[in-house]
Amino acid sequence: MHSILFEKKMLTQRKHELIRKARVNNVVVMKQIINTYSKEELMLARSLSEMYENIRDYYVCEIDGEVVGCCALHVVWEDLAEILALAVNPVCARKGIGTKLVTACLEDAKHLGMKEVFALTYVPGFFETLDFKVVDKNTLPRKIWSGCLRCPKFPDCNEVAVLKSIHS
Ligand SMILES: CC(C)(COP(=O)(O)OP(=O)(O)OC[C@H]1O[C@@H](n2cnc3c(N)ncnc32)[C@H](O)[C@@H]1OP(=O)(O)O)[C@@H](O)C(=O)NCCC(=O)NCCS
User: Fold this and answer.
1) What spacing in Å lies between the alpha carbon of 71 and ligand 1's midpoint?
2) Is 97 close to ligand 1, i.e. is its CB under 6 Å away?
3) 99 within ligand 1 shell (Cβ under 6 A)
4) Domain 4-165 falls in which CATH fold?
5) What per-residue confidence (pLDDT) applies to 123?
6) What is the Cα–Cα distance from 153 to 73, expressed in whole angstroms?
7) Which atom number of ligand 1 is nearest to the Cα of residue 88?
8) pLDDT (tens digit per residue) in 82-125
9) How many CA atoms lie within 13 A of 92 on its CB side?
10) For ligand 1, what atom is nearest to the CA of residue 34?
């Protein structure tokens, strides 16, 4: 996905880190990062067309001009939004990038007037560090299962639902 040079640079020095809204020319790299995990069935694969259609939902983290992570906030209903497609290049793991991406989405949710944000995840521990609480999936509206229907693991997945209240 990235040059060995980039990986070496990541381990030794990183100059300029930026969280920003995604642009269409970031989608191919975003999909590559997501694929790293989706091929191991750790997250849902996303098609290019779906990503282009929803590009306004996405944030990216860029380091020295290179996209190293992405995350989307998708509005489900008037008071509920979902965090999805959260993925950080493994080379850059545990450097706070996932936290910054989700924080940007939470700011967006607040700005939009959302009351609650949820995610379906295999890493509830990560979301708990951001004050999400584990909830029973069945307490969430049926509409949220649309993504799950495309998942190879459906209906026998053990993803956990996490939910956070947004205070305006
Ligand atoms: C989960 C993920 C986004 C975390 O990104 P990250 O940039 O490495 O996370 P951060 O550095 O911001 O982590 C902050 C804290 O969250 C917790 N955390 C991070 N990854 C975790 C994991 N896999 N399991 C449990 N807790 C985790 C840790 O407490 C961490 O703090 P620490 O490093 O000081 O211990 C990243 O590992 C990833 O892309 N995973 C694969 C895709 C995925 O599961 N996406 C979520 C789908 S909803």
Assistant:
1) 13
2) yes
3) yes
4) Aminopeptidase (3.40.630)
5) 96
6) 23
7) 39
8) 999 999 999 999 999 999 999 999 999 999 999 999 999 999 99
9) 26
10) 42
